[in-house]
Amino acid sequence: MSHTRAAVTLTVMLVVHGLSKSYAGVPPRAVFADVDLELRPGDYVAVMGESGVGKSTLLNLIAGLDQPDRGVIELDGIDLTTLDDDALTILRRERFGFVFQAFHVLPYLDVAHNVALPLSLLGVASAETQARVASVLAGVGLSGRGQSMPRELSGGELQRVAIARAIVHGPKLVLADEPTGNLDAGTAAQVLRLLREQIKATGAAGILVTHSGVAAQTCDRMLQLTPKGLRALSSS
User: Fold this and answer.
1) Among 136, 194, 211, 215, fewest CB within 10 Å belongs to which?
2) Domains plus CATH for the chain?
3) How is residue 147 annotated by DSSP?
4) How far apart are CA 2 and CA 171, in angstroms?
């Protein structure tokens, strides 16, 4: 039986347990408490909640960009709350992918070089970088657009570039914060489908923060963030 428990434990990629956060003040302002979450490879969950409940704060904590008041955040068995800034930076480069509402595509680099940025930071060889960039651009429907400049792309195409950049280095966890907030409904649907497809294809886990029920429906599970933690939402 102990072997069975060990095997199950190894399949859990992300563990968030007892996570609590407040902001300094008199008195301190509590954001949320007792957040628990477990994700396995291929899991894709939506986190919803009222404005100000701390959805983006939760992503920042999971990414090690902010520190919780208490709680555990483990990725592949590594507790992020015990790492210093340098170690967190390295971990983010290697194991995280990010997609934001604002595309954060560098305007002075062409599409291929924007997508290649995570690989450049990791020191991946040029030939392998070119192959990976070509592969992910094909995956998001941008084959042949590597030499295009960001100003030549639509909003939907820019978000496709952002998705390609987020998954090109094979991250373990993709964090998407309102990735379709600047897009029309039709384009948003295409981007959400691509985001799901790419997360599933790479075997990563994904967390989508959104206020949109339509967007949340593209995920495997929908969760609501409340001041007292996460609770499951019905997909109906």
Assistant:
1) 211
2) 2-233 (3.40.50.300)
3) T
4) 30
